[in-house]
Amino acid sequence: MASSWRRSLGNVRSFIGNSMGGLRGGSNLASWAVAGTLAYFLWVKPSQDLKREQQERAAALAVADPYRYVEKRKPIPDPQETGLIYGNKNRSNKSAE
Protein backbone atom coordinates (compact mmCIF):
# COMPACT_ATOMS: atom_id res chain seq x y z
CA MET A 1 0.00 0.00 0.00
CA ALA A 2 2.78 2.43 0.88
CA SER A 3 4.62 1.80 -2.38
CA SER A 4 1.58 2.81 -4.47
CA TRP A 5 1.42 6.38 -3.16
CA ARG A 6 5.21 6.66 -3.45
CA ARG A 7 4.99 5.54 -7.06
CA SER A 8 2.17 8.03 -7.68
CA LEU A 9 4.17 10.82 -6.11
CA GLY A 10 7.18 9.88 -8.21
CA ASN A 11 5.04 9.90 -11.36
CA VAL A 12 3.69 13.36 -10.52
CA ARG A 13 7.20 14.70 -9.87
CA SER A 14 8.41 13.16 -13.11
CA PHE A 15 5.50 14.68 -15.04
CA ILE A 16 6.12 18.14 -13.58
CA GLY A 17 9.85 17.89 -14.27
CA ASN A 18 9.26 16.82 -17.87
CA SER A 19 6.66 19.52 -18.46
CA MET A 20 9.16 22.18 -17.38
CA GLY A 21 11.63 21.04 -20.00
CA GLY A 22 13.41 18.35 -18.03
CA LEU A 23 15.78 20.81 -16.38
CA ARG A 24 16.69 20.41 -12.73
CA GLY A 25 18.23 22.57 -10.07
CA GLY A 26 20.00 25.83 -10.88
CA SER A 27 19.56 25.59 -14.65
CA ASN A 28 15.80 25.23 -14.21
CA LEU A 29 15.66 28.29 -11.96
CA ALA A 30 17.83 30.29 -14.34
CA SER A 31 15.67 29.40 -17.34
CA TRP A 32 12.51 30.45 -15.50
CA ALA A 33 14.18 33.72 -14.46
CA VAL A 34 15.16 34.47 -18.07
CA ALA A 35 11.67 33.61 -19.32
CA GLY A 36 10.05 35.77 -16.65
CA THR A 37 12.33 38.70 -17.41
CA LEU A 38 11.62 38.47 -21.13
CA ALA A 39 7.88 38.25 -20.50
CA TYR A 40 8.02 41.33 -18.28
CA PHE A 41 9.93 43.47 -20.77
CA LEU A 42 7.99 42.25 -23.83
CA TRP A 43 4.41 42.23 -22.50
CA VAL A 44 3.91 43.66 -19.01
CA LYS A 45 6.06 46.79 -19.11
CA PRO A 46 4.80 48.06 -22.51
CA SER A 47 1.18 47.72 -21.41
CA GLN A 48 1.89 49.57 -18.16
CA ASP A 49 3.71 52.32 -20.06
CA LEU A 50 0.83 52.66 -22.51
CA LYS A 51 -1.71 52.92 -19.68
CA ARG A 52 0.41 55.52 -17.88
CA GLU A 53 0.80 57.51 -21.10
CA GLN A 54 -2.95 57.49 -21.72
CA GLN A 55 -3.59 58.70 -18.18
CA GLU A 56 -1.06 61.49 -18.58
CA ARG A 57 -2.64 62.50 -21.90
CA ALA A 58 -6.12 62.56 -20.32
CA ALA A 59 -4.82 64.63 -17.40
CA ALA A 60 -3.17 67.10 -19.79
CA LEU A 61 -6.42 67.47 -21.74
CA ALA A 62 -8.38 68.03 -18.54
CA VAL A 63 -5.97 70.77 -17.47
CA ALA A 64 -5.96 72.39 -20.91
CA ASP A 65 -9.74 72.87 -21.06
CA PRO A 66 -11.39 72.58 -17.63
CA TYR A 67 -14.85 73.54 -18.94
CA ARG A 68 -15.21 70.91 -21.66
CA TYR A 69 -18.01 68.39 -21.30
CA VAL A 70 -17.04 64.95 -20.05
CA GLU A 71 -19.59 62.12 -19.92
CA LYS A 72 -19.45 60.74 -16.40
CA ARG A 73 -22.32 58.26 -16.58
CA LYS A 74 -22.87 55.36 -18.91
CA PRO A 75 -25.87 55.78 -21.18
CA ILE A 76 -28.97 53.82 -20.22
CA PRO A 77 -29.82 51.25 -22.90
CA ASP A 78 -33.22 51.47 -24.61
CA PRO A 79 -35.39 48.65 -23.24
CA GLN A 80 -37.51 48.43 -26.39
CA GLU A 81 -36.77 45.67 -28.86
CA THR A 82 -37.33 47.95 -31.84
CA GLY A 83 -34.64 50.37 -30.68
CA LEU A 84 -36.98 53.32 -31.08
CA ILE A 85 -37.34 55.81 -28.28
CA TYR A 86 -41.00 56.46 -29.08
CA GLY A 87 -43.58 54.11 -30.54
CA ASN A 88 -45.29 50.89 -29.70
CA LYS A 89 -43.23 47.91 -28.76
CA ASN A 90 -43.68 44.60 -30.60
CA ARG A 91 -46.46 45.89 -32.81
CA SER A 92 -45.36 43.69 -35.72
CA ASN A 93 -45.51 40.51 -33.59
CA LYS A 94 -49.09 41.15 -32.43
CA SER A 95 -50.38 41.88 -35.93
CA ALA A 96 -48.90 38.62 -37.25
CA GLU A 97 -51.04 36.51 -34.91
Q: Could you please describe the fold and organization of this structure?
A:
- The chain is mainly α and 97 residues long.
- The chain has a domain at 35-64.
- It has three helices and no strands.
- It starts with a helix and ends with a helix.
- The mean pLDDT is 78.
- Keywords: Membrane, Transmembrane, Transmembrane helix.
Radius of gyration: 30 Å
How far apart are the first and last residues' alpha carbons, in Å? 72 Å
The percent range for helix content is: 55-70%
Let me know the number of strands: 0
Query: What is the 3D shape?
Result: elongated
Order of helices and strands: HHH
**What is the structural class?**
mainly alpha
Low-confidence stretches: none
β-strand amount:
under 5%
Major sheet characteristics: none
Number of helices: 3
* Overall residue-averaged pLDDT value: 78
Keywords: Membrane, Transmembrane, Transmembrane helix
Question: Helices and strands in order, then pairings?
Answer:
Layout: H1 2-19, H2 26-64, H3 91-96
